[in-house]
Amino acid sequence: MAPPMAGDDPLAEMGRVVTTTISILSQLETAVSKLGSDSNASSSTDTVPPLDPTVDALAVARDSATLIKAHATKISLFIINKPFTPTAITKVLRELVAGPLPALASAAQLCDPKRYTQAVSRDLAWRCGRVFRELKELVNRIPTDGRVLSDAKKNSSFGIGADKGSVATTGLLWSACDDVVTLASLGVAGYLMQKVEQFRDTLKDIMEELKEWSEEESSDEEDDDDDNQGEDTEDEAYGSADEEEALGHTVSQANQTQDTPSAARTAATQDMLDDLMNSHTHIPRDDPERMRPRLDSCLRRLRLTVLLYQAALKRRFKALPPLPPPSTADDTLSRLDEIMRLLKLLPERFGSIALAFYELDRELTDSMMETCFSEAFAVSELLSKPWAAVDTKDEFADWVLKYQIEIKKAEI
């Protein structure tokens, strides 16, 4: 009997499809990574053919990621359960290559920054790239010898930096797909609100760290007058009655939650601040560099900026028009991009100010505070205008004016 032709060998055919799939995944990962890069964002998108505005890129991403997760689950089961069926695996891989994989890449391309904002476009591209990367890891674990994976290759992770088992690999892929679905389900406005909440929580964390550091300084002082001065400063930092009246319950709600550590605190930032707090000297009792007044001023303005984020969420981001807009001529997105850039930048600025305080570096502290509060003033100005009628004023515009006045008053 003549041996079977290579094309008739299911295992050999599966091996070829596995190789092709891995190559395609590598290409797609590279392509979407470029979409989310800074260089791509800075280049003109006018050279790209016009994208169909009727296609919902987020919906395409959600559906594609859901299909990829389902197909990957099948592969994960096929490679650990007997009998090993290369034809079934080949069928699933071909379905992936023919449908959800190119669709997910297309969704990343369709998510044009001019229609979905820079933040959403970049994050979707990054999440899509992660799906391709994790799926490639799973496909790489398909056994080409015709035998199901051993328990060790299925369940084990052989130490840090070693290969993960197929179960762990599948779990990471599920997580990557779920992250795409989560972003798509939030929509543009929901995603932006979530990011602003995270930025606000980071500001709260920095404020709490600075307050804690300041209170530790005060506990070492023997002068009651100094202690009382610290308490007065803390009361001032919590905002005035005018602010609470202007924003309803925004201020009071923020006061109730400010002493609760944020779940969104990043481990890296927290560890860095803790190390610095524990390793650097306190403000000297005689305070020759006048760091204490600077710290009080910073805390007051930081508190006001936390209120700005909270109020912007309520008065501006919850009132966003439908996104993406029907036309790229709408300037809402360009304004949103600049607002989001500054709202993201401010926590980084305040973090740098905190480091300067912990180093007792007066010159750097002054320089950073000047830059930071100039940017805070700028973002408040951008937020002061309603989305639809930019030439009109509303209640929040009046509050922003009070915020700007208080920021100026808080200068040392």
> What is the CA–CA distance across the termini?
95 Å
Helicity, as a percent range: over 70%
| Averaged pLDDT | 82
Q: Helix- and strand-based class?
A: mainly alpha
Question: What is the H/E order?
Answer: HHHHHHHHHHHHHHHHH
Number of separate structural domains: 2
Task: List low-confidence stretches.
Answer: 1-6, 42-49, 218-265
> What does the main sheet amount to?
none
Strand content: under 5%
Q: What does this entry look like structurally?
A:
The structure is a single chain. The longest helix is centred in the middle third of the chain and has 54 residues, at 166-219. Helix 1 (10-35) runs parallel beside helix 5, helix 9 (166-219) crosses helix 10 and helix 15 runs antiparallel to helix 16 (362-383). 71% of the residues lie in helices and 0% in strands. It folds into 2 domains: 6-37 and 49-149, A middle domain of Talin 1 (Up-down Bundle); 189-409, no CATH class. It is mostly helical and 412 residues long. The chain has helices at 10-35, 38-42, 57-78, 86-98, 100-110, 113-116, 118-140, 151-155, 166-219, 224-237, 241-246, 250-257, 267-279, 291-315, 332-358, 362-383, 395-409. The chain is elongated, with a radius of gyration of 27 Å. The chain is built from 17 helices and no strands.
